[in-house]
Design goal:
Blueprint: H1 7-22, E1 29-30, H2 31-38, H3 52-64, E2 68-71, E3 80-83, H4 85-89, H5 93-105, H6 110-116, H7 126-137, E4 145-147, E5 159-161, H8 169-173, H9 189-198
Antiparallel strand pairs: 1-3, 2-3, 4-5
Helix pairs in contact: 1-2, 1-3, 1-5, 6-7
Length: about 200
Amino acid sequence: MDVILTSEEVRVLGALIEKDLTTPEYYPLTVNALINACNQKSNRDPVVAYDEPTVVTALDSLREKKLACLFSGAGSRAAKYKHLAVETLTLSREQTALLGILMLRGPQTVAELRSRAGRACSFTDAAQAEAVLDSLVKRETGALVVRLPRQPGQKEARYVHLFAGQPDMTAMAAPAGAASPAQPAPAPVADERIAKLQA
């Protein structure tokens, strides 16, 4: 992936893709509709609270990168925006749908992606969804997705998009629930109680 996007650009692009595929009757989106799409509390990880300047700045940058454009339809009073991911990156509907989900939800397994893609496109089985993911991993023009190593305690490997650059593998390798360096580990209250009981 030649172009690296900020987290705000990723969220805005992902929201445009999602609304294009799932609610075409309300697409392209006004800035207000796009703010609401970015700040949705369902189907988003992380949940954000973007304001208008944040979304407009991201849109302007996406337009410079040929990933979004201003759309003026007949009878349209407010400015509306649409994504150009399909044209700029030469993507199929299935590829676009999976990328949109990864942008909005973070790393996912094939099963999660397949179930969440239902409104945008349907995959007959997990193998078909995995084949589309592999096509995004092995693109001749540069990978848009990478398959993460399977983590201890996880049955399946997860996939992540590369629009924000290569993922931090060391952070992803930390077991779930492990304290990050920025957060002190919780006091071992339970361990102390057990030790006292055993004594």
